[in-house]
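Form 7-S
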Amino acid sequence: MKTIIHDLGKEQNEKLLAAADQVICADGRYAPCQGCFKCWTKHPAACEMKDALYQSCRVLGMSDDLTVITENLYGGYSPAVKNLLDRSIGISTPFSTYRGGQMHHTLRYGRRNCLYIIAYGNISEPEKSTLKLMAERNAVNMGFRECRVAFCADAEEAGGLA
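Output:
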């Protein structure tokens, strides 16, 4: 299954659905993660908050390929995309294991194919290297075998790369 997370606006959902099985628009209307860890303990892979992201852990966990389209903010994700990714901590368990010689949380859904980050906006070289490093670390934490990062000048170009 291929999933796309984006901050391009809901009007892009139809276009992006042609390239993916699931599309989640990070429109900034979701509550931030409360840090209660109930998605780990009380209701595995389901958020305690009953909003549109209630099942996002399961959707992201079952995605073989995940594409994230985000505006660059200082070498990181946009606040709306970061908020959505924060709410997906339930894709792992509270238990730890070694992966790649480092300690990481055990994956609830196993290993997956590719994390593809598409960042758009005015991006300096230091911001590019920061975003690449963050994407690589996120890929390891989320259990992806591969990580790719692309940079675009604007949102329209970014939407076309998905």
